Request: fold
Amino acid sequence: MKRTLVNETLLKIGEEVKLYGWVDTKRDHGKITFVDLRDFTGKIQCVGQDKMSELTTESVVEVMGIVRKRPQNLINPNIDTGTIEVEVGSYKLLNKCGELPIPVDSTGYEIKEELRFKYRYLDLRRERMQKIIRLRSKFIEGIRKSLFKKDFVEVETPILTKSTREGARDFIVPSRHFPGKFYALPQSPQQYKQLLMTAGFERYFQIAKCVRDEDTRSDRGYEFTQLDLEMSFVSEEDVMHVVEEAVVSAVESLSAKIKSKKFQVFSYKEALEKYGSEKFDLRTDKEKEDGVLAFVWVNRFPFFKKVDVKDAAEVEDSKSGYTFTHNPFSRPIDEHLPWHLKGEHIEEILTTQYDLVCNGYEVGGGSLRAYTEDVLRSTYKIMGYSEGEILGSVGHMFEAFKLGTPPHGGIALGLDRLVMLASNEESLKETIAFPMTGNGKTSVMDAPSDVDPKLLSELGLSISS
Ligand code: ASP
Reply:
Protein backbone atom coordinates (compact mmCIF):
# COMPACT_ATOMS: atom_id res chain seq x y z
CA MET A 1 0.00 0.00 0.00
CA LYS A 2 1.24 3.48 -0.92
CA ARG A 3 2.01 6.06 1.73
CA THR A 4 -0.57 8.77 2.37
CA LEU A 5 0.66 12.13 3.61
CA VAL A 6 -1.13 13.71 6.55
CA ASN A 7 -2.45 16.61 4.46
CA GLU A 8 -3.99 14.14 1.98
CA THR A 9 -6.10 12.40 4.61
CA LEU A 10 -8.93 14.97 4.44
CA LEU A 11 -9.74 13.62 0.98
CA LYS A 12 -9.74 10.00 2.16
CA ILE A 13 -12.60 9.81 4.65
CA GLY A 14 -13.78 6.22 4.96
CA GLU A 15 -10.67 4.86 3.23
CA GLU A 16 -7.79 2.84 4.62
CA VAL A 17 -4.48 4.69 4.65
CA LYS A 18 -0.86 4.02 5.55
CA LEU A 19 0.83 6.93 7.32
CA TYR A 20 4.45 7.45 8.33
CA GLY A 21 5.79 9.96 10.80
CA TRP A 22 6.74 10.87 14.36
CA VAL A 23 4.71 10.59 17.55
CA ASP A 24 4.07 14.26 18.25
CA THR A 25 2.07 13.67 21.41
CA LYS A 26 0.53 10.66 23.11
CA ARG A 27 -2.36 10.50 25.54
CA ASP A 28 -3.29 7.26 27.28
CA HIS A 29 -6.93 6.88 28.35
CA GLY A 30 -6.96 3.36 29.70
CA LYS A 31 -7.86 1.12 26.80
CA ILE A 32 -7.67 3.92 24.26
CA THR A 33 -4.44 5.63 23.23
CA PHE A 34 -4.46 8.85 21.22
CA VAL A 35 -1.37 9.62 19.19
CA ASP A 36 -0.92 12.79 17.15
CA LEU A 37 1.17 11.62 14.22
CA ARG A 38 3.31 14.27 12.53
CA ASP A 39 4.87 14.29 9.11
CA PHE A 40 6.22 17.22 7.11
CA THR A 41 2.72 18.16 5.95
CA GLY A 42 0.96 18.31 9.31
CA LYS A 43 -0.49 16.37 12.23
CA ILE A 44 -3.38 13.97 12.58
CA GLN A 45 -4.93 12.23 15.55
CA CYS A 46 -4.67 8.43 15.47
CA VAL A 47 -6.84 6.43 17.84
CA GLY A 48 -5.71 3.01 19.04
CA GLN A 49 -8.00 0.55 20.87
CA ASP A 50 -5.72 -1.51 23.10
CA LYS A 51 -2.71 -0.46 21.10
CA MET A 52 0.10 2.11 20.86
CA SER A 53 0.48 2.68 24.61
CA GLU A 54 4.12 1.52 24.33
CA LEU A 55 4.95 4.45 22.02
CA THR A 56 7.16 7.27 23.25
CA THR A 57 7.01 10.81 21.88
CA GLU A 58 9.22 11.42 18.84
CA SER A 59 9.32 7.70 18.00
CA VAL A 60 9.02 6.88 14.30
CA VAL A 61 5.97 4.85 13.32
CA GLU A 62 4.02 3.38 10.45
CA VAL A 63 0.28 3.47 11.05
CA MET A 64 -2.45 1.66 9.05
CA GLY A 65 -6.04 2.62 9.66
CA ILE A 66 -9.33 4.04 8.42
CA VAL A 67 -9.88 7.80 8.17
CA ARG A 68 -13.05 8.71 10.11
CA LYS A 69 -14.98 11.94 10.55
CA ARG A 70 -14.92 13.12 14.15
CA PRO A 71 -18.22 13.77 15.93
CA GLN A 72 -19.00 17.51 16.04
CA ASN A 73 -18.14 17.88 19.74
CA LEU A 74 -14.67 16.33 19.30
CA ILE A 75 -13.51 18.57 16.46
CA ASN A 76 -10.10 20.18 17.15
CA PRO A 77 -9.96 23.59 15.47
CA ASN A 78 -6.21 23.89 16.20
CA ILE A 79 -4.99 21.45 13.56
CA ASP A 80 -5.85 21.31 9.84
CA THR A 81 -7.05 17.72 10.17
CA GLY A 82 -9.10 18.51 13.28
CA THR A 83 -12.34 17.28 11.71
CA ILE A 84 -11.02 13.75 11.17
CA GLU A 85 -8.95 11.06 12.84
CA VAL A 86 -7.50 7.68 11.98
CA GLU A 87 -8.91 4.56 13.57
CA VAL A 88 -5.74 2.50 13.87
CA GLY A 89 -5.93 -1.08 12.61
CA SER A 90 -2.24 -1.86 13.00
CA TYR A 91 1.02 -0.03 13.47
CA LYS A 92 4.75 -0.67 13.40
CA LEU A 93 7.24 0.98 15.68
CA LEU A 94 10.07 1.72 13.22
CA ASN A 95 12.41 3.38 15.66
CA LYS A 96 11.78 3.98 19.33
CA CYS A 97 12.81 7.39 20.62
CA GLY A 98 14.70 7.49 23.93
CA GLU A 99 14.47 10.22 26.52
CA LEU A 100 14.70 13.61 24.79
CA PRO A 101 17.73 15.69 25.86
CA ILE A 102 15.89 18.88 24.84
CA PRO A 103 12.18 19.56 24.36
CA VAL A 104 11.06 19.97 20.75
CA ASP A 105 7.56 21.28 21.39
CA SER A 106 8.59 24.76 22.58
CA THR A 107 10.07 27.75 20.70
CA GLY A 108 13.55 26.68 21.84
CA TYR A 109 14.62 30.18 22.88
CA GLU A 110 14.71 29.00 26.49
CA ILE A 111 17.32 26.29 25.81
CA LYS A 112 21.08 26.92 26.00
CA GLU A 113 22.73 27.33 22.59
CA GLU A 114 25.29 24.60 23.19
CA LEU A 115 22.61 22.05 23.95
CA ARG A 116 20.46 23.16 21.02
CA PHE A 117 23.38 22.81 18.59
CA LYS A 118 24.63 19.52 20.03
CA TYR A 119 21.21 18.07 19.23
CA ARG A 120 20.51 20.36 16.28
CA TYR A 121 18.65 17.57 14.41
CA LEU A 122 16.15 17.54 17.28
CA ASP A 123 16.16 21.30 17.64
CA LEU A 124 15.25 21.59 13.95
CA ARG A 125 12.16 19.45 14.53
CA ARG A 126 10.44 22.25 16.43
CA GLU A 127 7.73 24.06 14.49
CA ARG A 128 9.51 27.42 14.58
CA MET A 129 12.73 26.01 13.09
CA GLN A 130 10.86 23.97 10.47
CA LYS A 131 9.17 27.19 9.34
CA ILE A 132 12.42 29.17 9.11
CA ILE A 133 14.42 26.56 7.20
CA ARG A 134 11.51 26.03 4.78
CA LEU A 135 11.12 29.82 4.40
CA ARG A 136 14.84 30.01 3.57
CA SER A 137 14.40 27.43 0.82
CA LYS A 138 11.40 29.31 -0.60
CA PHE A 139 13.32 32.57 -0.51
CA ILE A 140 16.17 31.01 -2.52
CA GLU A 141 13.62 29.56 -4.94
CA GLY A 142 12.13 33.05 -5.43
CA ILE A 143 15.55 34.58 -6.12
CA ARG A 144 16.52 31.77 -8.51
CA LYS A 145 13.25 32.07 -10.43
CA SER A 146 13.67 35.81 -10.87
CA LEU A 147 17.28 35.51 -12.03
CA PHE A 148 16.71 32.57 -14.37
CA LYS A 149 13.93 34.60 -16.01
CA LYS A 150 16.57 37.20 -16.80
CA ASP A 151 18.94 34.62 -18.34
CA PHE A 152 21.38 34.42 -15.45
CA VAL A 153 23.53 31.31 -15.30
CA GLU A 154 24.30 29.63 -11.98
CA VAL A 155 27.98 28.70 -11.72
CA GLU A 156 29.89 27.13 -8.83
CA THR A 157 33.33 28.45 -7.99
CA PRO A 158 36.10 26.67 -6.03
CA ILE A 159 36.24 26.25 -2.28
CA LEU A 160 39.96 25.49 -2.23
CA THR A 161 41.53 28.62 -3.64
CA LYS A 162 44.01 31.41 -3.08
CA SER A 163 43.56 34.16 -0.53
CA THR A 164 40.87 36.55 -1.78
CA ARG A 165 41.79 39.42 0.61
CA GLU A 166 38.42 40.89 1.34
CA GLY A 167 39.06 42.43 4.68
CA ALA A 168 39.13 39.40 6.96
CA ARG A 169 41.65 36.73 7.95
CA ASP A 170 41.72 33.69 5.71
CA PHE A 171 41.06 30.12 6.74
CA ILE A 172 43.88 28.12 5.25
CA VAL A 173 44.09 24.46 4.26
CA PRO A 174 47.42 22.61 4.07
CA SER A 175 48.30 20.74 0.91
CA ARG A 176 49.65 17.16 0.94
CA HIS A 177 51.07 17.39 -2.58
CA PHE A 178 52.79 20.69 -1.95
CA PRO A 179 54.10 20.40 1.62
CA GLY A 180 54.42 23.76 3.29
CA LYS A 181 51.94 25.36 0.88
CA PHE A 182 48.35 26.24 1.63
CA TYR A 183 45.02 26.83 -0.03
CA ALA A 184 42.69 29.47 1.36
CA LEU A 185 38.93 29.10 1.71
CA PRO A 186 37.12 31.87 -0.20
CA GLN A 187 36.05 34.99 1.68
CA SER A 188 33.78 35.42 -1.34
CA PRO A 189 33.79 34.35 -5.02
CA GLN A 190 34.79 37.93 -5.98
CA GLN A 191 37.69 37.19 -8.34
CA TYR A 192 36.14 34.08 -9.87
CA LYS A 193 32.92 35.90 -10.66
CA GLN A 194 34.90 38.63 -12.36
CA LEU A 195 36.77 35.98 -14.35
CA LEU A 196 33.39 34.52 -15.40
CA MET A 197 32.71 37.94 -16.95
CA THR A 198 36.03 37.64 -18.82
CA ALA A 199 34.76 34.21 -19.89
CA GLY A 200 31.74 35.81 -21.52
CA PHE A 201 28.86 34.56 -19.33
CA GLU A 202 27.63 38.15 -18.82
CA ARG A 203 25.08 37.25 -16.13
CA TYR A 204 26.25 34.98 -13.31
CA PHE A 205 24.87 34.10 -9.92
CA GLN A 206 25.58 31.61 -7.19
CA ILE A 207 24.33 30.76 -3.72
CA ALA A 208 27.86 30.84 -2.36
CA LYS A 209 29.40 29.71 0.90
CA CYS A 210 31.97 32.21 2.18
CA VAL A 211 34.36 31.75 5.07
CA ARG A 212 36.00 34.53 7.05
CA ASP A 213 38.16 34.10 10.12
CA GLU A 214 36.63 37.02 11.97
CA ASP A 215 35.91 37.02 15.67
CA THR A 216 32.69 35.11 16.08
CA ARG A 217 29.86 37.11 17.57
CA SER A 218 26.87 35.96 19.50
CA ASP A 219 24.82 35.90 16.32
CA ARG A 220 27.28 34.60 13.75
CA GLY A 221 30.03 32.09 13.08
CA TYR A 222 32.80 31.87 10.48
CA GLU A 223 30.68 30.72 7.55
CA PHE A 224 27.89 32.54 5.83
CA THR A 225 25.96 32.29 2.59
CA GLN A 226 25.83 34.96 -0.06
CA LEU A 227 23.61 35.38 -3.03
CA ASP A 228 26.45 36.41 -5.30
CA LEU A 229 25.90 37.94 -8.74
CA GLU A 230 27.81 39.70 -11.48
CA MET A 231 26.83 41.26 -14.81
CA SER A 232 28.70 42.67 -17.80
CA PHE A 233 28.07 45.98 -19.61
CA VAL A 234 25.98 47.43 -16.78
CA SER A 235 25.53 50.65 -14.86
CA GLU A 236 25.06 50.82 -11.10
CA GLU A 237 21.32 51.29 -11.70
CA ASP A 238 21.14 48.14 -13.87
CA VAL A 239 22.52 45.98 -11.04
CA MET A 240 20.32 47.67 -8.46
CA HIS A 241 17.27 47.10 -10.62
CA VAL A 242 17.95 43.37 -11.02
CA VAL A 243 18.43 43.04 -7.27
CA GLU A 244 15.25 44.96 -6.49
CA GLU A 245 13.20 42.69 -8.72
CA ALA A 246 14.76 39.51 -7.35
CA VAL A 247 14.38 40.56 -3.71
CA VAL A 248 10.81 41.81 -4.16
CA SER A 249 9.72 38.65 -5.94
CA ALA A 250 11.37 36.43 -3.31
CA VAL A 251 9.88 38.42 -0.42
CA GLU A 252 6.45 38.34 -2.06
CA SER A 253 6.65 34.58 -2.51
CA LEU A 254 6.89 34.39 1.30
CA SER A 255 3.83 36.64 1.62
CA ALA A 256 6.00 39.02 3.66
CA LYS A 257 5.21 42.73 3.56
CA ILE A 258 7.49 45.19 1.85
CA LYS A 259 7.42 48.96 2.39
CA SER A 260 8.14 49.96 -1.19
CA LYS A 261 8.96 47.92 -4.26
CA LYS A 262 11.18 50.71 -5.52
CA PHE A 263 14.11 51.13 -3.13
CA GLN A 264 15.14 54.73 -2.42
CA VAL A 265 18.79 55.66 -2.97
CA PHE A 266 20.79 57.78 -0.50
CA SER A 267 24.41 58.77 -0.81
CA TYR A 268 26.62 57.86 2.13
CA LYS A 269 26.92 61.59 2.89
CA GLU A 270 23.13 62.09 2.83
CA ALA A 271 22.63 59.03 5.03
CA LEU A 272 25.05 60.34 7.63
CA GLU A 273 23.55 63.82 7.54
CA LYS A 274 19.96 62.64 7.71
CA TYR A 275 20.14 59.51 9.85
CA GLY A 276 23.55 59.66 11.50
CA SER A 277 24.43 56.22 10.10
CA GLU A 278 24.72 54.39 6.80
CA LYS A 279 22.51 51.68 8.26
CA PHE A 280 19.16 53.18 9.02
CA ASP A 281 15.60 52.07 9.35
CA LEU A 282 12.84 53.74 7.33
CA ARG A 283 9.96 51.95 9.06
CA THR A 284 7.36 53.63 11.21
CA ASP A 285 6.63 52.08 14.62
CA LYS A 286 3.46 50.55 13.20
CA GLU A 287 5.42 49.00 10.31
CA LYS A 288 7.94 47.59 12.79
CA GLU A 289 5.09 45.93 14.68
CA ASP A 290 3.68 44.53 11.43
CA GLY A 291 7.01 42.98 10.40
CA VAL A 292 7.32 45.13 7.26
CA LEU A 293 10.63 45.03 5.36
CA ALA A 294 12.00 48.42 4.29
CA PHE A 295 14.87 48.37 1.80
CA VAL A 296 17.10 51.31 0.85
CA TRP A 297 20.28 51.74 -1.16
CA VAL A 298 23.28 53.67 0.07
CA ASN A 299 25.99 54.61 -2.43
CA ARG A 300 28.92 56.96 -3.02
CA PHE A 301 31.10 55.60 -0.22
CA PRO A 302 34.71 56.68 0.26
CA PHE A 303 36.95 54.13 -1.49
CA PHE A 304 39.66 54.21 1.21
CA LYS A 305 39.94 54.74 4.91
CA LYS A 306 42.75 54.84 7.45
CA VAL A 307 43.57 51.41 8.82
CA ASP A 308 41.98 50.49 12.12
CA VAL A 309 45.06 49.34 14.05
CA LYS A 310 42.92 47.05 16.19
CA ASP A 311 41.78 45.12 13.11
CA ALA A 312 44.46 42.49 12.35
CA ALA A 313 43.22 41.80 8.80
CA GLU A 314 43.20 45.50 7.93
CA VAL A 315 46.68 45.95 9.30
CA GLU A 316 47.87 43.02 7.22
CA ASP A 317 46.03 44.11 4.05
CA SER A 318 47.54 47.59 4.03
CA LYS A 319 51.16 48.67 3.78
CA SER A 320 50.49 52.43 3.60
CA GLY A 321 48.07 53.03 6.43
CA TYR A 322 45.16 53.18 3.94
CA THR A 323 42.88 50.29 3.16
CA PHE A 324 39.70 49.84 1.11
CA THR A 325 36.37 50.47 2.85
CA HIS A 326 34.49 47.73 0.98
CA ASN A 327 36.18 45.94 -1.88
CA PRO A 328 39.61 46.33 -3.50
CA PHE A 329 38.18 45.25 -6.86
CA SER A 330 35.77 48.20 -7.11
CA ARG A 331 36.13 51.11 -9.53
CA PRO A 332 36.10 54.68 -8.32
CA ILE A 333 33.33 56.90 -9.70
CA ASP A 334 34.30 58.30 -13.12
CA GLU A 335 34.83 61.85 -11.81
CA HIS A 336 37.41 60.61 -9.30
CA LEU A 337 39.25 58.23 -11.61
CA PRO A 338 42.05 60.75 -12.33
CA TRP A 339 42.73 61.13 -8.57
CA HIS A 340 42.66 57.39 -8.15
CA LEU A 341 45.14 56.78 -10.96
CA LYS A 342 47.50 59.42 -9.59
CA GLY A 343 47.01 58.45 -5.94
CA GLU A 344 45.84 61.96 -5.01
CA HIS A 345 43.11 63.11 -2.60
CA ILE A 346 42.94 59.56 -1.33
CA GLU A 347 40.39 60.19 1.38
CA GLU A 348 38.09 62.03 -1.03
CA ILE A 349 37.97 59.34 -3.72
CA LEU A 350 34.45 57.90 -3.89
CA THR A 351 33.78 54.38 -5.11
CA THR A 352 30.90 52.99 -7.16
CA GLN A 353 29.97 50.86 -4.13
CA TYR A 354 26.26 50.48 -3.35
CA ASP A 355 25.03 48.81 -0.16
CA LEU A 356 21.56 47.41 0.35
CA VAL A 357 20.14 48.17 3.79
CA CYS A 358 17.01 46.57 5.25
CA ASN A 359 15.40 47.56 8.55
CA GLY A 360 18.67 49.10 9.73
CA TYR A 361 20.92 46.17 8.77
CA GLU A 362 23.35 45.98 5.87
CA VAL A 363 22.05 43.07 3.80
CA GLY A 364 24.29 43.37 0.77
CA GLY A 365 26.86 45.33 -1.11
CA GLY A 366 28.43 45.54 -4.53
CA SER A 367 30.05 47.83 -7.05
CA LEU A 368 31.21 48.37 -10.57
CA ARG A 369 34.64 46.79 -10.89
CA ALA A 370 38.13 47.55 -12.01
CA TYR A 371 38.45 45.78 -15.38
CA THR A 372 41.70 47.30 -16.55
CA GLU A 373 45.13 46.84 -15.05
CA ASP A 374 45.81 50.53 -14.33
CA VAL A 375 42.76 50.93 -12.05
CA LEU A 376 43.40 47.81 -9.96
CA ARG A 377 47.15 48.54 -9.78
CA SER A 378 46.38 52.04 -8.43
CA THR A 379 44.15 50.59 -5.70
CA TYR A 380 47.00 48.38 -4.46
CA LYS A 381 49.54 51.19 -4.84
CA ILE A 382 47.40 53.42 -2.65
CA MET A 383 47.45 50.61 -0.09
CA GLY A 384 51.24 50.74 -0.28
CA TYR A 385 51.96 47.52 -2.19
CA SER A 386 55.23 47.17 -4.08
CA GLU A 387 55.08 46.06 -7.71
CA GLY A 388 56.16 42.56 -6.64
CA GLU A 389 53.48 42.38 -3.97
CA ILE A 390 50.85 43.62 -6.42
CA LEU A 391 51.75 40.98 -8.98
CA GLY A 392 51.79 38.31 -6.28
CA SER A 393 48.29 39.29 -5.15
CA VAL A 394 46.43 40.10 -8.35
CA GLY A 395 48.84 39.44 -11.24
CA HIS A 396 46.46 36.75 -12.52
CA MET A 397 43.67 39.38 -12.71
CA PHE A 398 45.94 41.71 -14.74
CA GLU A 399 46.47 38.90 -17.24
CA ALA A 400 42.73 38.34 -17.56
CA PHE A 401 42.11 42.08 -17.89
CA LYS A 402 44.47 42.09 -20.89
CA LEU A 403 42.57 39.29 -22.59
CA GLY A 404 39.18 40.87 -23.22
CA THR A 405 37.51 41.52 -19.86
CA PRO A 406 34.31 43.56 -20.36
CA PRO A 407 33.24 46.34 -18.00
CA HIS A 408 31.18 44.69 -15.26
CA GLY A 409 29.66 45.04 -11.85
CA GLY A 410 27.78 43.00 -9.30
CA ILE A 411 26.74 42.51 -5.76
CA ALA A 412 26.47 39.99 -2.96
CA LEU A 413 23.49 39.76 -0.62
CA GLY A 414 23.72 38.19 2.81
CA LEU A 415 21.23 35.38 2.59
CA ASP A 416 21.30 34.55 6.30
CA ARG A 417 20.54 38.16 7.22
CA LEU A 418 17.71 38.46 4.69
CA VAL A 419 16.10 35.28 5.94
CA MET A 420 16.54 36.48 9.53
CA LEU A 421 14.64 39.68 8.75
CA ALA A 422 11.96 37.94 6.67
CA SER A 423 11.32 35.47 9.48
CA ASN A 424 11.38 38.15 12.19
CA GLU A 425 14.23 36.51 14.09
CA GLU A 426 17.03 38.25 15.93
CA SER A 427 19.96 35.95 15.32
CA LEU A 428 21.52 34.75 12.06
CA LYS A 429 22.00 31.36 13.68
CA GLU A 430 18.25 30.79 13.69
CA THR A 431 18.34 30.78 9.88
CA ILE A 432 21.20 28.27 9.43
CA ALA A 433 20.54 24.54 9.61
CA PHE A 434 23.83 23.70 11.34
CA PRO A 435 25.35 26.87 12.80
CA MET A 436 28.43 27.28 14.96
CA THR A 437 28.36 28.08 18.64
CA GLY A 438 29.55 31.47 19.84
CA ASN A 439 33.02 30.07 20.50
CA GLY A 440 33.40 28.50 17.07
CA LYS A 441 32.38 24.88 17.67
CA THR A 442 30.35 23.11 15.00
CA SER A 443 26.84 21.78 15.52
CA VAL A 444 26.47 18.09 16.38
CA MET A 445 30.01 17.12 15.33
CA ASP A 446 32.78 18.14 17.60
CA ALA A 447 35.02 20.31 15.39
CA PRO A 448 37.63 21.66 15.52
CA SER A 449 39.16 18.44 16.80
CA ASP A 450 42.54 16.67 16.98
CA VAL A 451 43.80 14.85 13.92
CA ASP A 452 45.85 11.70 13.63
CA PRO A 453 49.58 12.60 13.92
CA LYS A 454 50.13 10.52 10.74
CA LEU A 455 48.01 13.04 8.83
CA LEU A 456 50.09 15.90 10.17
CA SER A 457 53.35 14.29 9.15
CA GLU A 458 51.99 13.62 5.63
CA LEU A 459 51.30 17.33 5.44
CA GLY A 460 54.73 18.21 6.79
CA LEU A 461 53.16 19.90 9.81
CA SER A 462 53.85 19.69 13.51
CA ILE A 463 52.05 21.30 16.43
CA SER A 464 54.39 23.52 18.39
CA SER A 465 52.36 24.08 21.55
N1 ASP B 1 32.59 40.31 -2.86
C1 ASP B 1 31.91 41.31 -2.11
C2 ASP B 1 31.69 40.84 -0.68
O1 ASP B 1 31.75 39.65 -0.42
C3 ASP B 1 30.56 41.64 -2.66
C4 ASP B 1 30.59 42.21 -4.02
O2 ASP B 1 31.10 43.34 -4.19
O3 ASP B 1 30.04 41.57 -4.92
O4 ASP B 1 31.42 41.62 0.19
